[in-house]
Design a protein that fits this description.
With about 475 residues, this protein is mostly beta strands. The chain folds into 2 domains: about 100 residues, Immunoglobulins (Immunoglobulin-like); about 350 residues, TolB, C-terminal domain (Neuraminidase), CATH 2.120.10. The chain contains 4 helices and 33 strands. The strands form 8 sheets. Strands 1, 2, 4, 5, 7, 8 and 9 form a 7-stranded mixed β-sheet that branches. It has a 4-stranded antiparallel β-sheet with strand order 12-11-10-33, with no helix packed on it. A hairpin with a 2-residue loop joins strand 4 and strand 5. The radius of gyration is 25 Å and the shape is globular. About 40% of the residues are buried.
Amino acid sequence: MKRYSIFLIACMAICLTACTSWKSARSAAECRPVIFPDYAEVTVPVNIAPLNFMVEDADRIQASFRHEGNELLKVRGREGVVQIPLKKWHEMLKQAAGGNIDVYVSVWSDEYPQGMTYLPFPIHVEDREIDPWVAYRLIEPGYVSWRQLGLYQRDLTSFRESAIVTNHETTTTCLNCHHFPSYSSGSMMFHARGANGGTILYHNGRLSKIKFNEIWPNRNTTYPAWHPEGRYIAFSSNTTHQVFFGEGRQQVEVFDTASDLVVYDTERGEVLVDPRFFTEESLETFPAWSPDGKYLYFASYTAGSLPVEFSLDMHYDLLRVAFDPHTGSFGEQVDTLYNTRVSGGSVSYPRVSPDGRYLLYTWSDYGTFPIWHQDADLRMMDLQTMEDVDVSRLNASGQADSYHSWSSDGRWVIFGSRRLDGRYTRLFIAYIDETGKPDKPFLLPQEDPRQHAWRLKSFNVPEFIDGEVKLPKEAEELFRTEE
């Protein structure tokens, strides 16, 4: 009985401490707080991980989350960091689905020792979910070496990240160009570049390595596009070079001196080639299927005479050709959807929305590798009207916005951007409404928002997937080398 009384008194003391630890700030500002990441006025899916944030130079911080005037959650933090409990966050999102959460922030710092409270900022909660996982490559933003890189996956409903496959045991191997058929985590492919490399294919429960340079037409494959039905994979076959700059913010330029389209039949193990897309006169790259699998979109540069070295005059058009999955052949007509001789610039990374309505692509002034181009922006066309759709809200002026992919319901896009510091590519997510209008992008949430500065890796080629990828343990053995 005595022990019970002591325990009860202790619990009451803890509760009283918790209740009285919430403070009232002495002053009030007539502005919103400057938070990082900037989550003010963003639209988020109802199942997204907590939008943890920070206020620089703050010591103590308090955040009150309210919906329609009702306080749903209170969070206190130190060092200016707000870390929201996962379970309570998801409960709050469900209550606020279809409406707004208003966030009231107060801080205590050297500048405001008695506390400062700010005007609230809203977060809109869309009453629809996002695909639960995203896959990406983590790599240093340079081209000195490719030690310690890998393909990773992140649970978007939490902060759980795990490796799909890495080169930690084989550091001379570069892993790239991962892809999945129709958002399926049960099948995937990626390239392993190195002495014992090849294309690693996991499909229908079978793991294999394909050495395309040993199959006719004896060419390596590069950028992939897996047909929605799962049988075919379209590849570009690129001969790629790099040039480095001693001055300016752009450090490197990547360009092709040759690139062609091929299609791999996973059932027969054959490479299919259309002579029109396998010539020296034109360079085809970045294939992408329509969601019904009836068209292949790609970028193409008419070379004339092949460039011996990098040229500012390399401008890639956006083309489309019909495809018959029953015969594995392309149609006769090739449509030009974006003509650079008329509209200027250069096109890369075409991706069609799951409903077939919109085509999102990366535009840059020239070339085929926009990740280092400060002018690189996302653009979109309506495939029904062939008119441009204004998606300028996705872009950051003077910083590269590049690789992107659609969610399976077509209401979210995820893309890489260097807008934070001009060097590291980080992932941003944005809501797209039924008219193609985007909302303000938000930075991929991290458990500690300071990780965005601490983690010295670029996020490369984000792809939505429907679940966690579980490759067989033997996958790394397929490209392991003796070092």
